[in-house]
Amino acid sequence: MSPVKASPTARERARAELTREITEEARRQLAETGAQGLSLRAVARELGMVSSALYRYFPSRDDLLTALIIDAYNAMGEVAETAIAAGASPRVRWLAACHAIRGWALAHPHEYSLIYGSPVPGYRAPQATVGPASRVPLAFMGVLRDAVASGDMPAGDDGAVAGPPLGGALADQAAVIAAALVTAPDLPAVPSEVVV
Question: Do 129 and 195 belong together in one domain?
């Protein structure tokens, strides 16, 4: 017998609603001032709150930035995963995901800039951002895995995927990714020769 999940209490619903309002106002300010100009005091002022009340939801500006970063990665990841799930062949799925991600980036330029633009001075992303940040690359790795399995990405006699070899820093980065794919059990099984 599975446990019954209790409905959220009125306090939990109110907290979730206020958290949503805080992050929406922070996104609005992000569009106006950029990540460097994001201020908890300014967010609190716009919401008609005292800043000390806001600190109960987000103890620091970095905590608020982290929430915005996680939300952005998850939103983009969901767009990519949805596009990939709707396609048929690996090529169609890959292109659909690329177009969906581009569409999301154009519709949310400030959030896209937050996750892929210049680093925010003084901010260091915590481990909590890694999972959400992995969604898009893992979705693409799944498409690559399917392309190899279906024969849509043929390999040569040596097992390497046909195409020009990578060079320089790109080859080094691909080798690191290939090694991570082999050692991480929760990642899609993609042959290392596909990556390098």
Answer: no
Contact 58, 67 (CB under 8 A): yes
Question: How would you write the pLDDT of the chain (196 residues) with one tens digit per residue?
Answer: 556 667 888 888 888 999 999 999 999 999 999 888 899 999 999 999 998 889 999 999 999 999 999 999 999 999 999 999 987 899 899 999 999 999 999 999 999 999 999 899 999 999 999 999 989 988 888 888 888 778 777 655 555 555 667 778 888 877 777 776 666 666 556 666 666 5
How much helix, strand and coil, in percent to the nearest 5, is found in the chain?
Answer: 70, 0, 30
* 68 in any annotated domain: yes
Q: Tell me, yes or no, whether 1 lies in a domain.
A: no
Residue 2 lies in a domain: no
List beta partners, residue 155. Answer: 161
Based on the fold, state whether residues 87 and 183 are members of the same structural domain: no
What does the block give as tokens for 153? 């990405």
| 175 and 91 in a common domain | no
Q: pTM, whole model, 2 decimals?
A: 0.80
Cα–Cα distance for residue pair 12/46, rounded to 1 Å? 23
